[in-house]
Write a sequence for this structure.
């Protein structure tokens, strides 16, 4: 009974202390597409991802009711870094929904302004505000409405101590007259958050590759069905796993133990069920999370270096390897001979027939795609040709006998061979992430394998020239380019054997693979040349080829392909693809397959639509 009453009391006090207008709230999910388009339209960096900002402690003076309810300690403010534009996950500050939506758009516009990050916080935000209003005068009225609605919600200077009142007056003046305040008066108590400006001191995330003890990458977030429930990202850092050899020496008073936040290695048995809901709630209450990768496994203590297989089991190299450049977006420099690509082919392949479960679908696709095959047609009414056009000759003779002057149409017909002047190179992602399960019965690599089979069956029916390669990587010196079918080879049982032998491994250095595919496809004489990329995620590798760096190198490789007259197109099963693929391929340069198991049937149909 005591707990029940306490829970009711907590809900009551929290509800009274909460000044948010839930009925007028606008979420980031609702406005994310509009915000992304608006940001790029205003000249913002097109390579930035859009994400929810984590709530951070502001330290400002709170109302008595908020202190009683222990609420209002953290706030979501916007900021951007080299890779991400972070916006509040939800805005319910104003009673009018239109104002909350306008606040989102204003924060996006403010983030698009190019301002020196080394300027003091109050000067930086005033400068960004002034630049935004000068570039886009149409936002002035919207900004004025936001300021007028925000000022009554801020603490009144008359109710604050002198130093805090001076800070508040400076902030109010800066909001109303951007550029009029040069410095922020000092105060021991932090100022109240300014929701129209960016974060005064954004959390610094430590970006480190997340790998397992055997060198394999951790599963992508998109593989977790619960990952898409929230856009919120926590401030985090990674540390080394303590070895547990150091003793815990109690040289302090016992009551101070609860103020310590040092890491303690806690044994969590694998056979016990974790309370995931409680853990998620605890994570929401943390300002930042520090994580470490434990090298121990519950199944075995014997460890091997599994990065590279033994020579007898690995694919056989074809040639001596190729040196390729890579784009460094920070230096704006194309680094020559930076990557080493090795074309490879499986040693354990043989003649293979089409899998039985695909034969019925393949037969239907072949019959559909035969309609696209080259056909010979007759052109009638020609001035010269291979045969007499009897219909035209009869009409001409009839006109002469009736005294009518015949037209100038010819009386011959000629045969025309309508060729499909097209070449396609399909580049398949074979990284370790494809080892994840796409459904209850099949992995992503199985779906990709079936897609390659059906794609080959369909294109062999059209007579189009096509080639297929797979790719993966292990740092810049080992980019693996798996040979499945070249342009000069015909699709037969040996090619099917290579497709059957593909297996997942390593990472996804897309830029180098795209550059090599561009060299092969650009050498084809066909007028239309399609570069088709099949993947399940974004670029990544063990070294710095992660995040923005990998995205920008891939984007530059695609730009080089377009300059060669190629048409790149991406087919993906990544549910988060809309966050980065428009920056790489353009709004109409990619397709997202929502159900991975549908990919084998959808891929040939997409090809037919693109080449019709």
């Amino acid at each position: 009974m005591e707990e029940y009453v306490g829970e009711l009391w907590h809900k009551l006090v929290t509800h009274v202390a909460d000044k948010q207008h839930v009925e007028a709230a606008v979420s980031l999910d609702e406005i994310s597409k509009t915000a992304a388009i608006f940001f790029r339209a205003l000249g913002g960096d097109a390579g930035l991802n859009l994400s929810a900002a984590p709530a951070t402690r502001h330290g400002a003076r709170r109302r008595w009711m908020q202190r009683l309810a222990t609420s209002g300690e953290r706030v979501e403010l916007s900021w951007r870094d080299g890779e991400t534009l972070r916006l509040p996950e939800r805005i319910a500050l104003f009673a009018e929904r239109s104002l909350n939506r306008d606040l989102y758009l204003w924060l996006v516009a403010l983030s698009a302004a190019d301002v020196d990050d080394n300027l003091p916080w109050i000067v930086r935000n005033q400068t960004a505000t002034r630049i935004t209003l000068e570039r886009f005068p149409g936002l002035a009225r919207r900004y004025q409405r936001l300021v007028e609605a925000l000022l009554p919600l801020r603490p009144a200077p008359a109710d604050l101590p002198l130093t805090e009142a001076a800070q508040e007056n400076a902030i109010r003046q800066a909001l109303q007259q951007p550029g009029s305040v040069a410095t922020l008066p000092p105060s021991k108590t932090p100022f109240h958050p300014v929701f129209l400006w960016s974060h005064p001191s954004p959390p610094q995330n430590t970006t480190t590759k997340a790998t397992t003890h055997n060198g394999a990458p951790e599963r992508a977030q998109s593989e977790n069905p619960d990952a898409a429930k929230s856009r919120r990202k926590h401030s985090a850092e990674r540390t080394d796993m303590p070895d547990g050899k150091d003793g815990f020496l109690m040289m302090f008073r016992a009551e101070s133990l609860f103020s310590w936040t040092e890491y303690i290695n806690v044994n969590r048995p694998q056979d016990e069920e974790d309370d995931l809901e409680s853990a998620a709630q605890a994570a929401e209450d943390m300002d930042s999370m520090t994580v470490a990768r434990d090298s121990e496994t519950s199944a075995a203590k014997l460890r091997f270096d599994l990065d590279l297989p033994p020579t007898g089991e690995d694919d056989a190299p074809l040639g001596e390897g190729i040196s390729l450049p890579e784009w460094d977006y920070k230096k704006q420099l194309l680094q020559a001979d930076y990557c080493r690509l090795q074309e490879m082919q499986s040693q354990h392949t043989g003649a293979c027939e089409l899998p039985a479960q695909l034969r019925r679908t393949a037969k239907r696709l072949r019959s559909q795609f035969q309609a696209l095959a080259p056909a010979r047609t007759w052109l009638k009414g020609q001035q010269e040709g291979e045969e007499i056009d009897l219909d035209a000759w009869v009409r001409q003779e009839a006109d002469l006998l009736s005294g009518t002057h015949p037209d100038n149409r010819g009386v011959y017909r000629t045969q025309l061979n309508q060729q499909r002047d097209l070449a396609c190179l399909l580049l398949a992602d074979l990284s370790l992430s494809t080892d994840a399960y796409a459904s209850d019965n099949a992995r992503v690599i199985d779906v990709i394998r079936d897609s390659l089979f059906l794609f080959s069956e369909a294109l062999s029916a059209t007579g189009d020239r096509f080639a297929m390669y797979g790719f993966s990587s292990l740092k810049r010196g080992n980019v693996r380019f798996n040979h499945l079918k070249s342009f000069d080879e015909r699709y037969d049982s040996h090619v099917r054997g290579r497709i059957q032998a593909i297996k997942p491994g390593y990472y996804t250095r897309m830029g180098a693979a795209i550059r090599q595919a561009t060299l092969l496809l650009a050498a084809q004489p066909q007028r239309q040349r399609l570069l088709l990329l099949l993947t399940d995620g974004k670029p990544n590798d063990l070294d710095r080829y992660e995040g923005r760096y990998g995205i920008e190198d891939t984007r530059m490789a695609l730009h080089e392909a377009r300059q060669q007259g190629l048409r790149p197109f991406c087919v993906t099963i990544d549910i988060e693809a809309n966050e980065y693929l428009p920056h790489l391929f353009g709004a109409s340069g990619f397709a997202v397959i929502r159900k991975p198991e549908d990919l084998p049937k959808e891929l040939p149909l997409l090809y037919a639509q693109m080449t019709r």
